[in-house]
Amino acid sequence: MATYAIGDIQGCFDELQQLLKQIDFNPETDHLWFAGDLVNRGPKSLEVLRFVKGLGESATTVLGNHDLHLLALWRGFQRNAKENDSLAPILNAADCDDLLEWLSQQPLMHHDADLGYALVHAGLPPQWSIKKALKYAAEVEAVLTSNRLDEFFTNMYGDKPNRWSKNLEGWERIRFIVNCFTRIRFCTARGKLNLKMKGGLGSATEEYLPWFQIPGRKSRKHPIIFGHWSTLQGHYEENIYAIDTGCLWGGSLTALRIDTPLAITHECHCHEFQKPDKVNYLI
Fold it and tell me: Which of 101, 122, 137, 165 gives 108 a disulfide partner, CB atoms 3.0 to 4.6 angstroms apart?
């Protein structure tokens, strides 16, 4: 049995199928981990959702910022209308409610104690251990599966608060947790987030570092797989695996095999659907 972690698909269904053929994926014996952002901007988000949902127990996916944005649209929260064209086929599909009910029940974080890996979409602030991160993810997941879904999306968007405190309460606490799991790239040594910077390594101002390079980060001893940050170009360092390699922008779609002693990378080239200089992050 093989286990592969796959980076941000964002509607690139044909490339996903090509990659799965390349790794000889067998849904009866193998397992796929998806790093979030299954949808948006690419041409076949509806097909991706149907396929991943249809994999059942052969797949695990965590929620990304674009997945949450789709859920917000589904619940009637309209933002950045021009950016939503690629999501219209999902919202107009006969099985929309079934698909998005399923999507809303997916976690923000996955951890496999046997394999030793954790999976998130974007990252973790330096103050969180893996154990704490799982606890905080569960707080948000409880809201997403409750009757407070509309209230959640009313309060989800925004960049503040930008620093963790165990004393955060209510929607400010929930918003910060969501922003870490689905949007974080750079932060300070004291954990202050900068959600505006989107460049690669070395592009930030002196005060900020990539979240995974903060000295003394409490999750540093645990292998973490994440997507979201295509400008890292599949950067790997000790216990860190960035697997969003920019399929949507004409890069590649990456599958990282994690059930072997040495993680093995597989990639397939992707068509270019959008220019990187047209990125307009939704949340």
Answer: 137
